[in-house]
Request: fold
Amino acid sequence: MFKYFLLTLLLAYYFTPALIFSYFSISIQTADDEYDFIIVGAGTTGLVIANRLTEIPNVKVLVLEAGEEDYPNFFISIPGLCGFAQLTSVNWGYLTVPQKHACQAMEGQKSHWPRGKVVGGSSSLNFMIYTRGNSDDFDQWERSGAEGWSYEDVLPYFKKSENFTGNSEDIEESFHGKSGPLKIGSIRGSALHDIFEEGMSELGIKTGDYNGEDQQGYMNVQRTMYDGVRINAARAFLYPIIDSRRDQLHLLTRAFVKKVEFSDGRAVGVHYTRDGKKYSVRARKEVILSAGSIGTPQIMMLSGVGEEEHLKDIGIPVVANLPGVGSNLQDHLMTPGCFKAKNIPRDWNGADILNPINVSCFVALFIFYILRLY
Reply:
C-alpha cells in the first residue's frame, strides 16, 4: 500500500505543476505565418501596445516573449517576495561590467542587473515603485528633437493609464488618473511611517507627491499594488482583454527572437527559436521591438542595425549605420541607508508576523485574492 501511495505522490509532484500551468495558460502553441503587427517582448511597453493596437477591429497582433507566463507564481504575485523572484528563471540574470566607484562590496565590483524574462517583463520582478521621472527630462528630450515628448505632452497619457486607488492626501490629484487600467496604491499608515513623517515635519521638510509638480520633499511611496497583490503589466493590460480578443491577439511564450528580417530597408518579419526549433513569421505592417533596454539594442545589432564598424568586425551584414544603438545606457543610483531606533512598537518587531495563525490567515487571504483577480 505504501509504495502505491509513494507512487501517487511522485506522479502528483511531476504532473501537478504542468496541469496548473496548462489550465491558466493563455499562450498559443504555434504562431500563424503572418500578422499585421509583431511585437517582440511581452513586457510593460509590449503589452500596452498590444492592448491599444487590438482596440482596432480586424487588426491581428502577435506578441513574442522569451520567458514563461507570469501566473501562477507566488514570487511574482506576493509583493514581499519580489527579491526572491529576481533569483529565479524569470530574471535574465545580467551583470554589469566592473564598476570603478560603486559596488565596492560586490564580487568583482559587478552589480546585478535584474531584467524580466517573463510575461509582464521587469514589472513582474521590480519593487513596484511607481515613478514617472522628472519633468525636466521629458522637456529636454523635446528640446533635443523628440517632438511630442515634453512633459506637458505625455502627462495626459500617464493619467489615462492610471487608476489611483490610494489615499488622496498623498497626491496632487490634477496629476493623476482614476479610471485607467493600471492600479496604483500608496503605502502609509504604519507606526514606523508615522514616526518618520513626524521627524520630517520637525526638520521642516514638506510632504509632497513625486509624481506631481514638485519632486522635492518627503514622499509617500506610490506602488503598482492592489489588495496586497502586485499589479504588473500583464494584470493591467493583458488579462482584462485577452478573452475578448483571442482572434486578434496571440501571445507566444518561450520564443527567443534572433533577428529582424529586412526587405528593401523595411522590417518584414522576425526569426525566432522555440524549444530548440527555428521559426519565422512575417509582418504585413510593422515589427515593434520592446525587448527592454538590453534586449532591444541587442536584437537590432544582430539584425544589422547599429554602428557599422562594430557590426563588420563581428561579421554581421549592415542594414543601417546607427552608431547610437547600444550606447548611452543609464540607470538610477541606489544608496542604501541604515537606521537604528528605540521603542519600536511591538507589532513591528517581527514576532506577530511569524505567528502560525497569522501566516495561515495570510495564505488564505492571498488565495482568495488570486481567485478573485483571475
